[in-house]
Structure formats: structure tokens, C-alpha cells
Write a structure and sequence with these properties.
- The chain is α+β, with helices and mostly antiparallel strands and 76 residues long.
- The chain has one domain.
- Helix content is 16%, strand content 13%.
- It contains two helices and two strands; from the N terminus they run αββα.
- It has a two-stranded antiparallel ribbon.
- The radius of gyration is 16 Å and the shape is extended.
- The two termini are 25 Å apart.
- The mean pLDDT is 88.
Length: 76
């Protein structure tokens, strides 16, 4: 199982998840949601952000199954 990568922008996502909450970063100026979390809004270039609680209801449009790279030493 792969471990989540935490960085300063995404750390609150994992902190809320540990509490059983689904929160997504949103722009405090224009209101657009942004995922993955990042320091600057791609819509209005604002650095102001807030974490909004989501309902947890929705539709999954796509998903990814990660496959770790093979170890070259094992292949021979």
C-alpha cells in the first residue's frame, strides 16, 4: 500500500481525514474549489484559501490503481 504524500498545502486534508471529515481546499476570494491543494488559486491567482467541509456524497468518474515500478535488480 502506498503512503500518502504530505506537504504543507495538503497536510490539512489528511488531518481532517483522520478525524473522519472530507474537506477540500477552496479559494477564499473567488470561491473555486481546488484539488489537489496548492498555494495559489488557478482561477484568480489569490493566495487566500479555506478548507470547506464536503457532504461525502457524489459520483466517482474515474480512479487510478497505482502499480509501483519493478525493481531492476530482480529482473536480472
Amino acid at each position: 500500500m502506498l503512503s500518502p504524500v504530505t506537504d504543507p498545502d495538503g497536510a490539512p486534508f489528511w488531518q481532517y481525514a483522520a478525524q473522519g471529515e472530507l474537506r477540500v481546499q477552496g479559494c477564499a476570494d473567488c470561491g473555486e474549489l481546488r484539488f489537489p491543494p496548492r498555494p495559489c488559486c488557478p482561477h484568480c491567482q489569490s493566495f487566500a484559501s479555506e478548507w470547506r467541509r464536503m457532504s461525502g456524497h457524489g459520483r466517482i468518474w474515474s480512479y487510478v490503481v497505482p502499480h509501483p515500478p519493478l525493481l531492476l535488480g530482480v529482473l536480472g
